[in-house]
Amino acid sequence: MTDETSEQHKARMREMQKSQARRQRELTDPERGLVLVHTGDGKGKSSSAFGVMARALGWDKKIAVVQFIKGKWKTGEKNFFARFPDAIDWHVMGEGFTWDTQDRARDIEAAEKALATAAGLIASGKYDLVVLDEIHIALRYDYLRVDAVIAALESRGDTAVILTGRDAPQALMDYADTVTEMTEVKHAYHGGIRAQQGIDF
């Protein structure tokens, strides 16, 4: 608690309101789709992207998703977004986590096919938002080159693109408009608790 009076508080909020209004007037529209990077070792990178998808659906936007790693794993988000077949095109391109496939050549081939699909979706002009889920994992293992990913992003026009996964390369973060790093403070998995349906997948 502070000793601020009601009138002092009102005056301070009024100044803050003016400052915010000035800032809003200074902002510009980039006239191109934004690139957002969700990275870090904490939970929530893909979940945050799916939250943006829900927001976009609220504005009747057209969306595409390309999943690079998760393979055929059944998830609640895919089940949910399947209810919007006219608004979302969902592409599961990965074959699972790299420790499952144990075949580097096959993983590289799958990642390159996923990027080719993503590049086509981004360049098509048909989508307001494209989510490249877990693409940073493919970059981390050198299944893809970061310059090839950036080249695909260059053709985006008005399409916004979200890229998710741990260990986003610095070049991609430098290129992006918005970068969010999820930081793990505590995780149930490290406490011996298995992934929970509806919470973790």
- Count structural domains: 1
Biggest sheet overview: 6 strands, parallel
- CATH architecture descriptor name: 3-Layer(aba) Sandwich
Q: Helical segment tally?
A: 8
* CATH uppermost class: Alpha Beta
CATH superfamily: P-loop containing nucleotide triphosphate hydrolases
Estimated radius of gyration: 20 Å
Percent strand equals 5-15%
How is the CATH topology named? Answer: Rossmann fold
Give an overview of the whole structure:
The chain has 201 residues and is of the alpha/beta class. It has one domain: Rossmann fold. It contains 8 helices and 6 strands. It has helices at 6-26, 45-58, 76-81, 98-101, 104-124, 135-140, 146-154, 170-175; strands at residues 35-39, 63-67, 88-92, 129-133, 160-164, 178-181. The protein has a 6-stranded parallel beta sheet, with helices on both faces. The mean pLDDT is 91.
